[in-house]
Amino acid sequence: MTDTVVLSDLKARHRAMWASGDYPAVASELVHDLGEVLVDAAGVRPGQRVLDVAAGTGNAAVAAARRGADVVASDLTPELLDSGRRAAARDGLDLAWEQADAEALPYADATFDVVLSCIGAMFAPHHQDTADELVRVLRPGGTLGLASWTPSGFIGQMFATMKPFAPAPPLGAQPPPLWGDESHVRALLGDRVRDVRAETRVLPVTHFADGEAFRAWFADRYGPTIAVRRSLADDPERLARLDQALRDLADRHLDGGAMGWEYLVLTATRA
């Protein structure tokens, strides 16, 4: 099997994973506010050409379009783009929705004034390839804005909890929450950017009454959780242990029905 075939299979599995479940519900019910936060941090203005990479249903893209920017929302998974397109149309917003791989963006160098990714590009498996593309399509003097779950925060810990139960990652793949480590992102971007600003913030989440409510909701709706659970379909004992580990994790983080999900907001200027 050639490297090209292996890569194509990996992309197909990623598309299928994010199309499974109900990520639009995750985007609208849990993490909707992150789009506005990122657009604020990046200082998006009317008339700017903006690219949202791994946009999903477009939380950041839609927020940028509301400010009068000329926006392209790109994602590997067309089902998510379709959902975002319908929602934006209901709100009377006009933006482009284009299928694209964060590791090989189909745009010319220095095309955009602002490049954003809101808990999206962090899930592309090859971090350096993704960082190179984010920088490549940004014009000199343009703004890069990233929002990513941190390794130490709740979602980062959720991925660490699932890791022992999951199939081995593809060769060269890196854990998504590393994008929430400022030093890791600085190393990826190198001297191609300047004026790097990073701030750790917390997203309040009040959707879950207890650990079982969290486990069940994510088991039905969140692609990465669905994929790991499906891989254990023939091993009910390990599946039960995973489910209990997720319950326990959520219960430890719940305080009076509320959680705080930590994320990193990083902005930088293209040198």
TrEMBL record:
Spans traversing the lipid bilayer: none
SUPFAM superfamilies recorded: S-adenosyl-L-methionine-dependent methyltransferases
Coiled-coil annotated spans: none
Acetylation keyword on record: no
Annotated Methyltransferase domain residues: 50-142
GO molecular function: methyltransferase activity
Keywords per UniProt: Methyltransferase, Transferase
Any Pfam family the entry gives: Methyltransf_25
Source species, domain of life: Bacteria
A biological-process GO annotation: methylation
Name assigned to this protein: Class I SAM-dependent methyltransferase
